Amino acid sequence: MKALLTASALCAATLMAACSTDPDLYVAPKPEAVQAVRISYASVAVQEVSLPTYAASQDISVADASGKISPASDSLWADEGTRAVTLSLAQGLSDATNARVAPAPWPFLNRPDVTVDVRFESFVADATGQFTLRGMYFIAPEDAGRADRSRSFEITEAYDVAAGIPAIAAARSAALAKLAQDIATRGLR
């Protein structure tokens, strides 16, 4: 009897495993090279970004025409949202500037010349083929003699809805590259 129950449990577990599938994982591709910007800081720390709840997880969220945001079925980002976006912005700022850039916590012995803090109000693809980033960033120099700055941003990147999640990933990457360029140009000069 015990062997029959064990065999039944094993058979049930095998059937459940066969019916369930792992979600597809997507990585936002590295964006094309951005235009170099000369900034007035030698080192830049990027604080961990603040994302809306729906964007902070691994879910790939899409807004419908009514504004309802839902996760894509059977698909996830390959990395947690906050970490991936913070790293992408740090890489984008590094690519766009002549500065040493790193995400917080600052990994170097000497303090950074300036800290960038980005807070997103919106970070979502919509069903019409637009990926939108909206929010504010804050520039906090280490030198008290230099002025703090805050800037609002809204960046929209078009994508082909028919191309699916790879197109959303490319639009996300391109939009973050544009944000890095904006931070370098309007915030760090």
How would you sum up this structure, described in words?
By secondary structure, the protein is of the alpha/beta class. It is built from 4 helices and 8 strands, in the order H-E-E-H-E-E-H-E-E-E-E-H. It has helices spanning 2-19, 53-56, 81-96, 165-187; strands at residues 24-26, 43-46, 59-63, 69-77, 100-103, 114-126, 130-141, 149-158. Strands 1, 2, 3, 4, 5, 6, 7 and 8 form an 8-stranded mixed sheet that branches. Helix 3 (81-96) crosses helix 4. 31% of the residues are buried.
Which keywords apply here?
189 residues, alpha/beta
Shape: elongated
Question: Could you tell me how far the N terminus lies from the C terminus, measured between alpha carbons in angstroms?
Answer: 77 Å
User: SS-based structural class?
Assistant: alpha/beta
Helix content: 25-40%
Low-confidence stretches: 1-19
Specify the number of helices. Answer: 4
Radius of gyration: 21 Å
Strand content: 25-35%
Query: How would a crystallographer describe the biggest sheet?
Result: 8 strands, mixed
Number of strands: 8
Provide mean pLDDT, rounded: 91
Give the topology string: H per helix, E per strand.
HEEHEEHEEEEH
Brief summary:
By secondary structure, the chain is of the alpha/beta class. The chain has helices at 2-19, 53-56, 81-96, 165-187, and strands at residues 24-26, 43-46, 59-63, 69-77, 100-103, 114-126, 130-141, 149-158. The longest helix is centred in the last third of the chain and has 23 residues, at 165-187.
